[in-house]
Amino acid sequence: MITGSLVALVTPMHADGSIHWEHLDALVDFHLENGTDGIVAVGTTGESATLAPEEHCQAIGHIIKRVNGRIAVIAGTGANSTREAIELTAEAHKLGADACLLVVPYYNKPTQEGLYRHYKAIAEAVPVDQILYNVPGRTACDMSNETVLRLADVPNIVGIKDATGDIPRGIELIESLQGRLAVYSGDDATAAELMLAGAKGNISVTANIAPKAMADLCRAAMAGDRDEAARLNELLMPLNHKLFVEANPIPVKWALHRMGLIGEAIRLPLTPLDVKFQGVVEDAMRASGVLN
């Protein structure tokens, strides 16, 4: 089972929007050096929605090669087309991904039966471990706990990223699953509480810029050390909130640029962080110890 701090890695770019491979290598090394347990390659934070399929797969393969088996690599392969999701998942499996993360189909708003059939079809088509991803605030479609429980019977569906931020609902899901699937938080602000309740890690935006602190938080929370988890959670809370002052990944890419790790490029229709928010994000970075 993949556990711990799993960074939802950004995709660094040149000013013309092409992928900056040298900066991507540097980011992977940054996480290897700072205790991150796994990398989510080209998930929604990695701007999967605006990468062409060939770029998407090229970036996944590049990250897998750079990691070279030292930590887990989870490939983001979700799509609002079941056929496209199968194709991306098959290619990620071929490239050597440890697992695939599949976001709930966005915009087309399938029924719960449609979600069940979508995920079951992908799992049956590609023999790789698969993690469901429910983020209704971005997809306009909410996968119910009941649908997750149905999908837990599919052998290679092994987990779910719960980005609802609803702790009582997340705890109910953990208890109902009885260990059949790993539940991961997908909401930095509530991740500590969900891990203390039994979640197996956090698929994190904040980990992009504070990898060591997030890795330490995950280990403390999963070990049941409530005091240490609370201390680290308080330290990271300014980032957990202010990295969402504009749509993710706008603020986190600016923060990494401010740290000198990447350029500030982002693909349209997203735009660089508005000047009026730059001081807000910088203050949060200082409060959380990322900047002096």
Automatic annotation (TrEMBL):
- Residues carrying the site annotation Part of a proton relay during catalysis: 44, 107
Q: What does the record give as the reaction this protein catalyses?
A: L-aspartate 4-semialdehyde + pyruvate = (2S,4S)-4-hydroxy-2,3,4,5-tetrahydrodipicolinate + H2O + H(+)
Which compartment or compartments is the protein found in?
A: Cytoplasm
Question: Which class of enzymes does this protein belong to?
Answer: lyase
Q: Which Pfam families match?
A: DHDPS (PF00701)
- Binding residues for pyruvate: 45, 203
Q: Where are the transmembrane segments?
A: none
Q: Which Gene3D superfamilies match?
A: Aldolase class I
> Which SUPFAM superfamilies does this chain map to?
Aldolase
Q: Which GO terms describe its molecular function?
A: 4-hydroxy-tetrahydrodipicolinate synthase activity
Coiled coil ranges = none
The active-site annotation reads: 133, 161
Q: Which UniProt keywords apply?
A: Amino-acid biosynthesis, Cytoplasm, Diaminopimelate biosynthesis, Lyase, Lysine biosynthesis, Schiff base
Write out the pathway annotation from the protein's UniProt entry. Amino-acid biosynthesis; L-lysine biosynthesis via DAP pathway; (S)-tetrahydrodipicolinate from L-aspartate: step 3/4
PROSITE patterns recorded: DHDPS_1, DHDPS_2
Gene Ontology biological-process entries: diaminopimelate biosynthetic process; lysine biosynthetic process via diaminopimelate
Q: Which domain of life is it from?
A: Bacteria
Task: Write out the GO cellular component annotations.
Answer: cytosol
Q: Does the keyword Cytoplasm apply?
A: yes
In chain numbering, the residues marked as site (L-lysine inhibitor binding) are 49, 80, 84, 106
Give the E.C. number(s): 4.3.3.7
Which HAMAP family does this entry report, sorted A to Z? Answer: DapA
Q: How does it assemble?
A: Homotetramer; dimer of dimers.
Q: Which family, according to UniProt?
A: Belongs to the DapA family.
Q: What is this protein called?
A: 4-hydroxy-tetrahydrodipicolinate synthase
Q: Which gene specifies this protein's sequence?
A: dapA
